[in-house]
Each structure stands twice: as C-alpha cells, then as structure tokens.
Design brief:
Layout lengths: L5 E6 L17 E7 L4 E5 L4 E5 L7 E8 H10 L7 E5 L11 E6 L7 E4 L4
Length: about 120
C-alpha cells in the first residue's frame, strides 16, 4: 500500500480485533498494539467508547492499522463523522509510533455522567 494512498489509524473500541466493527478493517495492515501519550480519557457510551482529550489524561491502549483511502471512508461513515458524533484527527502515541502521523476518532459530544473506562475499553 503506497504511503500517499494510506493512513495510519489508532483504534481503541469496537474496531479492535474481536469486536463488532473489526470486519471493516478486513484486508488492512495491522501494525501492532500501541499506547497513547497520557493526554486522553475513554468514556463508555454504551456499545462503544468515546475518546476525548483530558487535562488529567491516561495512556490509552489500542491497535494501529495502515488503511487505504476506501477503508478510511468506510471507517469515517461507521464512526458518524458526517453526523458530527466523532472527528478524525492526529493522536499522540508512544514508542514506535511516536514520530509518525497517526489519526484516531475523537468523541464530539458531552461525557458528563458517562463511566470512565480507564486505559482500555471494555
């Protein structure tokens, strides 16, 4: 997959291996597990989590994939980007991914009253 025709994405919820939306990543390259810088929190939104930037953040566990642009469009649709549920933007990861451009989906709505997931969902 040529670099200009692909994007690295960090997934932390229902797109992870073994979860409901993982099939959307079929045929894409799994690059490994990753840990974010401690600037984020995960909140349980029911059948999926929401990632937000947070002043007292944690290092969130997830997986990194190299995806083609067609897959990226499918993922944006599944995450409700057009409906303004999530926005995809750069995320800061530790270790082997720290100097690479990796994006993740951030929750755009309120998290008051939602359960904090700690470092991983579920």
């Amino acid at each position: 997959m040529p670099a200009q025709l692909s994007q690295l994405v960090f997934v932390y919820g229902s797109l992870k291996q073994g979860y409901a939306l993982h099939a959307l990543l079929q045929g894409q390259l799994h690059l490994g597990n990753a840990l974010t810088e401690p600037w984020y929190r995960l909140f349980d939104l029911g059948s999926y989590p929401g990632l937000v930037e947070w002043p007292e953040g944690l290092a969130i566990r997830g997986e990194v994939y190299q995806v083609d642009l067609e897959c990226l469009a499918r993922l944006d649709a599944a995450e409700g980007v057009a409906e303004r549920l999530y926005v995809r933007r750069k995320i800061s990861l530790q270790a082997e991914f720290e100097r690479r451009e990796v994006q993740a989906w951030f929750w755009l709505n309120a998290v008051q009253g939602m359960q904090d997931c700690g470092v991983a969902w579920p």
